[in-house]
């Protein structure tokens, strides 16, 4: 019997059952992979519109069996994609509410978001298992984000030249100017013979205040996670007092929980409406020294409260000397979906509006304190 061509087997997995006349039927592990993919993507309602036939007969796989199969059959990157699609695209909540499944899955950011969205459905036994996912992902994110925070607060670039060559301190514009003489127009290349670097100086830090105001509506789950961990990384830094405030239609001051981001995230209630005006009004009330304060409002700007009051409060904060940030996302991807009309109104009132990674926020805070 001739062994199946691996290349054709891969095409069969991509194109589905209708391609078997050209690729041949899947065999062995390829057949198991096809069954695992069909179990998940066979749920896609768009397949019927494209006249794609589902596999023959109902699947006998349970969620636990499916997870066991994909961990055996696919590489890590594919497993993470399949688990993400199961939770976010097809809302297979057993992935985060079934004790047997929770014991099997590998903690990752997608599952953490799913846990935060569904923990109200969990009994105490399942909640205890879900905490394992929260703790593992928080530990990993904290380890990564803490490096960015430490780097931001160890020193700022000065304009003084430095003989110490460090990629992060490369003076890009100075290097270009110093080496223009080596530009080769026929090759359209600039040869660098004398790279220039700037020095870093340790800063004297006066007391500053950072108020993170976080929208906990369902679409902001990633930003809530990164806000909690960023606040924990900033907590206790000399010269910086950090507050964390969460809001939907109510406002909750979580500053007392900042040092334990796992416990904090387990208390967050995702979903509901948004009253950004009320939350920013509360943030304004806790500002001690306006000229040494940063208020970072992390939201998608879809306001259910009083937009005019929100704009007026932001304008008052800016006029008294407070730096106001309006962040449509605070996560590693910083790809926001937000109400651009309200965001523009806040920008016109003096707020800095955009999206940031946690490292960029730490750098912004550090540079204002320097």
UniProtKB/TrEMBL annotation:
Residue stretches making up the VWFA domain: 207-366
SMART domains hit by this protein: VWA
Pfam families (UniProt xref): VWA_CoxE (PF05762)
Gene3D superfamilies recorded: von Willebrand factor, type A domain (3.40.50.410)
Top-level division of the source organism's lineage: Bacteria
Xref: PANTHER family: OUTER MEMBRANE LOLAB LIPOPROTEIN INSERTION APPARATUS, OUTER-MEMBRANE LIPOPROTEIN LOLB
Listed name of the protein: VWA domain-containing protein
Species in which this protein is naturally found: Allokutzneria multivorans
């Amino acid at each position: 019997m001739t062994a199946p061509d691996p290349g054709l087997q891969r095409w069969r997995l991509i194109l589905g059952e209708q391609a078997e006349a050209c690729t041949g039927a899947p065999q062995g592990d390829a057949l198991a992979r096809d069954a695992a993919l069909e179990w998940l993507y066979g749920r896609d309602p768009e397949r019927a519109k494209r006249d794609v036939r589902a596999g023959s007969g109902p699947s006998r796989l349970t969620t636990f069996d499916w997870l066991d199969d994909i961990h055996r059959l696919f590489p890590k990157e594919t497993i993470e994609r399949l688990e993400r699609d199961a939770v976010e695209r097809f809302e297979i909540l057993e992935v985060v509410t079934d004790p047997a499944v929770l014991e099997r899955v590998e903690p990752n950011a997608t599952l953490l978001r799913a846990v935060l969205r569904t923990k109200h459905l969990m009994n105490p036994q399942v909640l205890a298992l879900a905490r394992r996912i929260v703790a593992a992902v928080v530990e990993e994110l904290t380890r990564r984000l803490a490096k960015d925070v430490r780097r931001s607060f160890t020193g700022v670039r000065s304009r003084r030249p430095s003989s110490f060559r460090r990629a992060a301190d490369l003076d890009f514009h100075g290097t270009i100017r110093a080496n223009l003489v080596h530009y080769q127009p026929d090759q359209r290349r600039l040869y660098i013979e004398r790279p220039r670097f700037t020095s870093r100086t340790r800063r004297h830090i006066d007391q500053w205040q950072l108020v993170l105001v976080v929208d906990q509506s369902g679409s902001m789950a990633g930003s809530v996670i990164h806000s909690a961990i960023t606040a924990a990384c900033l907590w206790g830094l000399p010269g910086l007092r950090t507050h964390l405030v969460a809001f939907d239609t109510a406002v909750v001051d979580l500053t007392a929980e900042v040092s334990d981001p796992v416990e904090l995230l387990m208390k967050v209630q995702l979903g509901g409406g948004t009253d950004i005006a009320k939350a920013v009004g509360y943030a304004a009330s806790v500002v001690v020294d306006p000229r040494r304060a940063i208020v970072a409002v992390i939201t998608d700007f879809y306001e259910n409260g009083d937009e005019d009051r929100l704009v007026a409060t932001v304008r008052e904060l800016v006029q008294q000397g407070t730096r106001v940030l309006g962040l449509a996302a605070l996560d590693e991807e910083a790809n926001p979906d937000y109400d651009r009309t309200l965001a523009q109104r806040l920008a016109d009132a003096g707020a800095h509006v955009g999206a940031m990674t946690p490292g960029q926020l730490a750098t912004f805070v550090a540079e204002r304190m320097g």
